[in-house]
Each structure stands twice: as C-alpha cells, then as structure tokens.
Amino acid sequence: MSQGSQVLLLGAGFVCEPAVQVLSDAGVHVTVACRTLAAAQSLTKSLANTTAIELDAGDDEALSAAVGKVDLVVSLIPYTLHPAVVEAAIKHKKPELDQKAKDAGITVLNEIGLDPGIDHLYAVKTIDEVHRAGGKITSFTSYCGGLPAPANADNPLGYKFSWSPRGGLLALLNPGQWYQDGQIAKVEGKDLMASAKPQNISQDFDLVGYPNRDSVSFREFYAIPEAHTVFRGTLRYSGYPEIIRTLISIGYFSQDRLVSLDGGNKTPPTWLQLTAQLLGLESTVTQSQVRDAIASKVQFLGSNELTKVLSGLEWIGILNETEPVTPKDTPLDTLCEVLQGKMAYADGERDMVVLQHIFEIEHADGSKEKRSSTLIEYGEPIAPGYRSAMAKLVGLPCAVGVLAVLEGKISMKGMVAPWSDPVIAAYLTDQLRTKHGIELAEEVIA
Ligand SMILES: *[C@@H]1O[C@H](CO)[C@@H](O)[C@H](O)[C@H]1NC(C)=O
Ligand SMILES: *[C@@H]1O[C@H](CO)[C@@H](O)[C@H](O)[C@H]1NC(C)=O
Ligand SMILES: *[C@@H]1O[C@H](CO)[C@@H](O)[C@H](O)[C@H]1NC(C)=O
C-alpha cells in the first residue's frame, strides 16, 4: 500500500511537479525539500498531503534527520549529491554502495526518467521479446532529443533553452563512440557537429542526429552481443550543427580568458570587433572582411549552407557593427549570455521530446525485420503551472517508480535499474501507458 506512506522529495526543479502531483493524488504524503523554502512551497501550495521544508542536501546531519522520518527518499537534485543521499538512507559503513544498500535492505532505484529511463525500458522490452522467441538483435540505434515544438522552432538554430545553455553547449564537444558493422567507430569532440546526419523520424519536422557519447558499453548493458551496430544519438533540427560548428571554428566555444579589447579606455567592443578578434583580425576590419574570414574558416560548408549560417550568425548578433558586447570571462560565457537571452522559451510556446529506437531483428527462422519504437510528446503551452514534455517524461516515470517501490512491486534490494528485470520493466511500462498515456509506438518498418 502506498497510501499514507511518507516520501521525502529532494529538489524543486521543473521535473518535480509531475512527480509530486502523482504521489499526492495517490495519497502519499510528500515532503518537498529544497535549499530555498519558497521553491519547495511553490510545488506544494496547491497540493493536498504535501509539506515544504528548507533543506541543504549537502548538510549530512540535516539530510540524515529528514531521511530518518520517511519511508522513501526521491533525489531529484544534481547527481553529484546522490551518493550522499544514498549514504543517508543506508547509514551503515561498508565499502561498496550496492552491497551496503543490500545489507541495509533498501532498494535504490536508479535512472528512472527519460534518458536514462523510458529509453531503456523500451529498448529491453523489444530485446527481451526477440530473445525469448529465439531471435537476434543485429542492430540497435536510438535517437533522443528535447526540442521546441515545430511551431516554436522559429530561430535559425531551431533550439530554445529553459535554463543556462553552458552545459548543453559544452556537451557539443563530447567525443562519441559506437559499434558500426562490428567495428568500434569514433568521433572526436571537435568533429561531433560535423558527424550529424538527417533523421527521417517524422514528415512533420526535419531533424538531424549525432552521437551521444559512449554507446559501446550499451552492447553489453543491453545484453545484445550479437549486434553489429549499437548507436545512441541526440536529435536537433537541421541547421543547428552547421551554426554550432561555425561558432566553434570562430572561437566562441573557447574557455580561455577573454582578453580585454577596450585598450584601457573602457569602451566595450562591438560584436563585430569581438568576432574579428577571435578570428585573429584587426578590430578595424569591415563586416564584409569578417564574413570572408568566416567563409574561409568553414570551407566544409556548401554555399547554400554558408548563406544560412551567416544569416544565423547575424540573427545571433555576432556580426553586429554597433551593438556593444557585454563581455564575460570567456568567449563561451559571452556567447552563452546572448544565446540565453535570444533563445529562451516565451509564454504560450511548447517543447517537444522525440525518442526513437530502431531494431534490426533476425528471427529464429532466419527472416529479417526492422522495427521502430517512437515517442513524440508535446509539452503544455508555457503558462503558470504548465508541464513541459521533458518534465512529464522525467517526473512521471519517477513517480511510477516510487509507487512501485512503496507497493512492493520492486522487492529487489541494492541498486536496482528499472530495466534490469524484464518483469519490473514490463510493470513500469504498463503503468506509464495506462496511468499516464506515455508509451512508445511500435511499428514494423521493413
Ligand atoms: C492525506 O492522505 C490520507 C491518506 O493517506 C488521507 O486520509 C487524507 O485525507 C489526506 N489529506 C488530505 C488533506 O487530503
Ligand atoms: C521517410 O519516412 C516516410 C514514412 O514515415 C517515408 O514515406 C519516406 O519515404 C521516408 N523518406 C526517406 C528519405 O527515407
Ligand atoms: C545591431 O544592434 C542594434 C542594437 O541592438 C540593432 O538596433 C540593430 O538592428 C542591429 N543590426 C543588425 C544589422 O542586426
């Protein structure tokens, strides 16, 4: 029984609201704890059976006291704090977290969101079905992206930020590796954007995908040693990688200290002057000289692409001859500031999450099949109390996982990955579908 259970939820970010709502509806008492009381209160104020408290999860004693009062803890705070939360939940001293959790008889449910979370649940669903029938997964590719809905992808990058872009931009320099036709294929961080390829997921939008870090370990993780291709990627609207690649080439992703351009006279440079400086040009160059310098830096672009990229750069404002820069510590920080300002979601706009797995299957009788599993989820229009697609797809699986633990559906102890047991995975996917209408649509495509 989950009714009357006590849950401590750490965090007050955008993914918390759907989780708190579902738990409160189920009669679970939720204590929302955040470093700022007001943030916690904003989540609890309209919900029955909830309490808001101020808590710094970095304060071991306060954390331990709060954890001691409840049946279950949900950590929706940055992952670097998760070990401390698990420690507080265990309160024993043994060398390894998993064994500690087992010894303490507690379940630590991990990675129950979107990615990781729903993506893995639906990967193992099909893999398990195929394996049970004696078949093989010869290829697994998966793409996921959190994007603006098509109608709101109305800037040259086709992208918007709900929070600081810095981490997301730096991730565009991550190297990637995956299995391709039985070999390990790699891309260096500097070439990640160049590796983006068109993805035909829906005729309603034009997406491209590029590798999402290390997919190699997923062959073992998904127990598909037979797969010659294992690839996980990130989705963006087409046009995005070319603009990012150009910004990187110019030097806007540099984390070196920005050398002052003011020559001591405290006049901030214009955007054109800063761009010229990053390109190694004199600050007196004209806009057309800067355009030429960019064109010669990005010879990888076709002339059509170059025209689009330059108009994108103009839209961002980095070719502007009159507007002064507000310089930050580094070129990257200076760029982040302007992107955050120009590419923020506005009221009434919606986000979208796209997730697609493609499985190539060889059945026991030797016949072949290509199957897709696809989720396209739209957020609610931005307004007070709205739920973004991302919040739904991270927060609702979390709530479903919490209820499953409270109701004894997951009785394994120690660190439990929701997909590690097909029975648990099936239960969670079933709950997500029937209670929240979240599911991946499966289709035989070849
Ligand atoms: C809180 O939940 C309990 C069941 O756990 C229920 O009896 C009680 O009415 C709820 N309180 C409110 C204010 O909804
Ligand atoms: C894209 O997918 C649609 C079906 O969704 C198909 O009709 C079309 O031919 C595909 N286009 C390409 C270029 O593969
Ligand atoms: C340059 O910036 C100024 C001030 O923000 C703006 O008024 C002007 O339209 C911009 N120029 C171009 C070409 O975008």
From TrEMBL:
Report the residue ranges that make up the Saccharopine dehydrogenase-like C-terminal domain in this protein.
113-438
Q: Does the keyword Iron-sulfur apply?
A: no
Q: Can you tell which superkingdom this protein's organism belongs to?
A: Eukaryota
Q: Could you confirm whether the keyword Amino-acid biosynthesis appears in this record?
A: yes
UniProt keywords (A-Z) are: Amino-acid biosynthesis, Lysine biosynthesis, Oxidoreductase
Q: Name one Pfam family in it.
A: Sacchrp_dh_C
Gene3D superfamilies with a match to the protein in the record: Dihydrodipicolinate Reductase, domain 2, Domain 3, Saccharopine reductase, NAD(P)-binding Rossmann-like Domain
Q: Which residues form the Saccharopine dehydrogenase NADP binding domain?
A: 7-99
The protein depicted here goes by the name Saccharopine dehydrogenase
Q: Which organism is it from?
A: Aureobasidium pullulans
Lineage at the top is:
Eukaryota, Fungi, Dikarya, Ascomycota, Pezizomycotina
